Amino acid sequence: MGWSPTSDKTHGSRWRVHDNGGGACILHPLFVSFLLCISFGVFYMFYLFSGSNLGYEISVGCQDDNEGSWGIGVFYGDSPFSLKPIEDMNIWDNRSAAWPVANPVLTCASVTDAGIPSNFVLDPFLYAKDDMLYMFFESKNPITRQGDIGVARSMDDGATWEHLGVALDKDWHLSHPYVFDYNGQIYMMPDGSRNGDLRLYRATEFPLKWKLEKIILGRPLVDAFIIQHEEKYWIFGSIRSRITCQHLEIWYSNSPFGPWTAHRKNPISGPLNGGRPFLYNGNLYRLAHDERVRVFKIEIFSVNNYKEVEVDLGMKNPTKGKNAWNGARSHHLNVHRLRTGKWLAVADGDRTLYGDVTRRRIVGCGLVVTAGSIIYVICWLLGFVKCLVTHNLKRKNPAYLVWERLKLRLRLNINPNTYTGKFIFALLVMISVMIMCVGFWYIYGGNGADKPYSVNSRFSQFTLLAMTYDARIWNLKMYVKHYSRCASVREIVVVWNKGKLPDLNDLDSTVPVRFRVEEQNSLNNRFRPDPLIKTKAVLELDDDIMMNCDDLERGFKIWRENPQRLVGFYPRLVTGPPPLMYRPEKHARKHNGYNMVLTGAAFVDHDVAFERYWGKEAEPGRNMVDEVFNCEDVLMNFLYANATVGGVSVEYVKPAWAIDTSKFSGVAISGNTQAHYRVRSQCLEKFSRLYGGLTDRKVEFRRRKDGWDL
């Protein structure tokens, strides 16, 4: 076997492999180039989604898990049927930059950061002792791939939680840690059904040390609980079948230690238990679940009969889909009455469904294989690749003649050396690379959720504020629909400067939208104090800027770590000597630094920023803003720099992409770029005289470890 390059006037240069046995394989240089492109594409996608490239440290915990990405949230209400998430209660935690505290309050990161690796947390049960709340929960150990029982403590009625450690760790999977009192002792009855029985543990040193007290039932009951009713003790649990656990079993005894007698109605049709049963207004309720928590009122309960009826729990379902921490499902709830008479509840939630990782990998691998297969077949039909079987195989295989006829029908008579041929081939390469990139996104890119970032294992929310008028309704509708789905957005406030107000029903929003109508059309209205804003953070974002939710979440995280700064997405650099000139971002890039961020997309502390802007000192600057109808963001930068003694007053976060939709609608305020820049240069000169310069406050790009300021 040998090889040699050949020349063909019709088909151009090819690489040919001769086979003396009668077969031949011909590879066109374009096909080889395609293979190289695919290789670079594969490398790029792997690099893009690798942890080191994103600036994250690879952790043993909080990895993609086929069972989900469970977390635990807190809810409050006047009754168990009026529960609202903690973010609606406006509870602040200054220690962890949570203004206000938002769900989830406990995640795998909370446990992993405490030194105990975890992939997710779920099945929370509350226990009150010594004016403190303890939460026991299942924690998925990524090393053993089993559930352990963790415990956390709260000293502020559930607003924040401190992870204490692992309360129970066995050689088998544990979950559903039901904790209760009996005769002055504290007991735990976890779900250890994979071990084939039901066990009772007693606390020897609460809450972290437990001792096996007794195997109370030799049946592998799933998600069981034990309660006292009419001088008897009752166990409710399900038997796991190969398909489902829809058969509920009830057992009763005179003591939690048995012996136990099966209820005469066993098995009872009903969903799995979904938490601790509770009494309210003299009625007993059982919590259950499928993809959501359900509640059943027990109407008949005796050794001979049992009946329950489903009632409305009253909790609103999440509206942000995968971006919500419990957007896909929730299967556990534990309610508890506080000393104040209010009700507290803890619930688990997940943004993905069971088997999500497997599905993503199957789809991703399928797309990668499909992309390669399609381009290979088309290249073969175009004549770029020829791989023929041997003459002996031709004679022995009757289907070969059929295949040859099909080839003649499918063969595309396109010369790869013409412009048309090259265009078609380039188009095919682009399509194939796109399909392959999508495939690798499925494999490495996660489930598609734009998740919030925690600070000190805490989450919070911000208010989104936009200023607009009636000519930009098209922008506003798209703006509200997109950004209301972002995980940390609590409310959208629209500062309405002029024109007829739109109907709120015309806006597709998952969060409240509030219009604030102004009497005067002024850019200063953007920073007017608003006592109705309930969050410390406000994202000032022009209604014609579209970027992805993850960019907003990154900016929010950086601002929470630096709340005294302006944190924005559009950097600018003001350099001397006078006369000062306003220049675009490329000037800042050229000089590797910035000292301004435009507040058309920036996070601010609404109390601090708005107070500064409407203070007496800023009055001359506000007057110029009204005079030129421009420069309100420039003024805010000078006010922040003037209030910061040394150090950094602005912080930049690079968005993955950003689109100015006003270019499509034709209603941009600064349509004439050169005139816009001249006005801003005048503002720079005047504000420098009024409030001091910015030229000595340069901040370099690429100074943060996370790489978000490249």
Summarize the structure in short.
The protein is an alpha+beta fold and 710 residues long. Helix content is 25%, strand content 29%.
Q: Secondary-structure map with pairings?
A:
Layout lengths: L2 E4 L7 E5 L5 E4 L1 H20 L22 E7 L6 E2 L22 H6 L7 E9 L2 E10 L4 E9 L7 E7 L6 E8 L2 E7 L6 E8 L3 E9 L3 E9 L2 E8 L7 E7 L7 E2 L5 E2 L2 E2 L4 E3 L2 E7 L3 E9 L4 E6 L21 E5 L5 E7 L6 H27 L2 E3 L3 H6 L2 H12 L8 H26 L17 E7 L4 H11 L5 E8 L16 E5 L19 E5 L3 E3 L1 H13 L4 E3 L2 E2 L12 H6 L5 E2 L3 E5 H8 L5 H10 L3 H12 L6 E3 L5 E3 L1 H4 L7 H19 L19
Parallel strand pairs: 27-28, 27-30, 28-29, 32-36
Antiparallel strand pairs: 1-2, 2-3, 3-26, 4-5, 4-25, 6-7, 7-8, 8-9, 10-11, 11-12, 12-13, 14-15, 15-16, 16-17, 16-18, 19-21, 20-21, 21-22, 22-23, 24-25, 30-35, 31-37, 32-35, 33-34
What does this protein structure show overall?
- The protein has 710 residues and is an alpha+beta fold.
- The protein folds into three domains: 71-353, Tachylectin-2, Chain A (5 Propeller), CATH 2.115.10.20; 357-444, no CATH class; 462-700, Spore Coat Polysaccharide Biosynthesis Protein SpsA, Chain A, CATH 3.90.550.
- The strands form nine sheets. The protein has a seven-stranded mixed β-sheet with strand order 29-28-27-30-35-32-36. Strands 14, 15, 16, 17 and 18 form a five-stranded antiparallel β-sheet that branches.
